[in-house]
Amino acid sequence: xxxxxxxxxxxxxxxxxxxxxxxxxxxxxxxxxxxxxxxxxxxxxxxxxxxxxxxxxxxxxxxxxxxxxxxxxxxxxxxxxxxxxxxxxxxxxxxxxxxxxxxxxxxxxxxxxxxxxxxxxxxxxxxxxxxxxxxxxxxxxxxxxxxxxxxxxxxxxxxxxxxxxxxxxxxxxxxxxxxxxxxxxxxxxxxxxxxxxxxxxxxxxxxxxxxxxxxxxxxxxxxxxxxxxxxxxxxxxxxxxxxxxxxxxxxxxxxxxxxxxxxxxxxxxxxxxxxxxx
Length: 278
Fold this sequence. Notes:
The chain is built from nine helices and eight strands. By secondary structure, it is an alpha+beta fold. Strand 6 (135-139) and strand 7 form a beta hairpin. It has three domains: 4-86, no CATH class; 90-174, no CATH class; 201-275, no CATH class. Helices cover 36% and strands 13% of the residues.
């Protein structure tokens, strides 16, 4: 019997966003339309692709604690085929220092403060409290997995979890961001110059109101909630030109009411647009 779904449900109950992984560590989609990238999502599974779902379905964005997804038939079917559990460290305000070989482990023991440690097939995961930008290859054999990334669940580990050390922060800051710099918020105009070809104005209004509510009700992981909401709105309406500056302003206002800066809102919108190929 596959015990992975039971373990994953337990992790989700404790607030750790989880996702099923294939034997090659690639994630499944959260719905039938997105399974095996049938929806057209990008092969690079770290980047959520476009889909018709009300939630992102790919890579780190597939990780969830949402009971609607956890109870869905598609989610259960994916876990029956899964071979491992993945999780989104940043979604639970953790950072994983992924040490791929013995030399990297030795470096960590000589450089970083002790924290929760998990043995992997090639090295160790050192888990810290707090989030940073995810960057691969910060040094030989060392990847940082936190925001907008996923890691494999290999057990609770041993040791007491410490805060993200300055040494890890410095490694992340030394690497240039892989995502493009923030740009002005723009939405492509519809090719026909008319109204949205597939949704009614009433549907759009309801969607914006639900997006505002989703941001407002976020209890934790506000950065992630804002990004995912922007991604969902753009996935449904970003290509047809029905979004206006007023709609976007409403989303930004809701995000800023939760403590997000205007710059972060612009960056999150830009990153969501880029992830969808806009």
